Amino acid sequence: MSIVFGLSGPSCSGKTTVALNLLKLFPRTVIIHQDDFYKPNSQIPVNEALGLEDWDCPASFDMDMIVEEIRVLRKRLCNMAADGSTDGFNAIRPSFASQWANPPDDVDKVVDGDVLESLKTKILHTLQIESLDKTPFSLVLVDGILLFHDSKPNATDINAEFDAGLFLYAQYGTLKQRREARSGYATKEGIWTDPPGYFDSIVWPNFIKYHKRFIHEHPQVLGNGINTAK
User: Fold this and answer.
1) Which of 94, 96, 101, 98 is nearest to 13 (CA)?
2) How far apart are the first and last CA of the chain?
3) Full-model pTM
4) Beta strands in 38-90 (DSSP E)
5) By the 8 A CB rule, do 9 and 15 touch?
6) What distance in Å separates the CA atoms of residue 179 and residue 68, rounded to the nearest whole number?
7) 8 Å CB contact between 218 and 168
8) Alpha carbon distance 17, 166 (integer Å)
């Protein structure tokens, strides 16, 4: 059995860090980074009012290709022999090694070792297995900023591909600080660096714009005192 799990949240909310730590708990996992499916620089939409490339909108991603990759990978993992080996997973993972993912340097220290060991023990007990390699399912873990967003009619609905999911968020100030601390991103046609004010002009407004339904149901994701008109 193969489970597709969506891990989403605003830019710099810690998605990749969580994904890499989940990999320690579920070794029969392949992580797909949505960032690997950005369109070429020349095809990134431009916000006409601001004259800026908009890397934080659905149209900047090849959503059809992401959905196709998820479906192909789900089927491929289901067809792999359930022999307890992770060799096949190790062979697949390099195909989804994102150049865009920016986990902190201390990613292996973010979650306390004792906490991880406790979680491992609970998983072994719950699933009644002897080792984590023996989990009775494989996991396709999809990490991205636009997985649970509001889709337009007739648009590709990536959310329909997930069996379960988790939405991560952090305070506005924390997200802004993390995003502005990044030096740049490798793209298909070069390097992208956020121009000054990009978080407040593009990143944050787009998060609100494309997650209206989710924010309505979970207003806490905006943090305290943050104006939704930003």
Assistant:
1) 101
2) 43
3) 0.84
4) 46-47, 52-53
5) yes
6) 29
7) no
8) 13
Each residue of 136-192: pLDDT tens digit?
Answer: 888 899 999 999 998 777 778 888 899 999 999 888 999 999 999 988 888 888 889
Instruction: For 78, list phi and psi in degrees, rounded to 5.
Output: -65, -30
The 10 Å CB-count burial string (b at 16+, else e) for 109-131 is eebeeeeeeeeeeeeeeeeeeee
- In the 8-state DSSP scheme, what is residue 105? T
CA dist 221 and 195 (Å) reads 25
Assess contact for 139 and 78: CB atoms under 8 A.
Answer: no
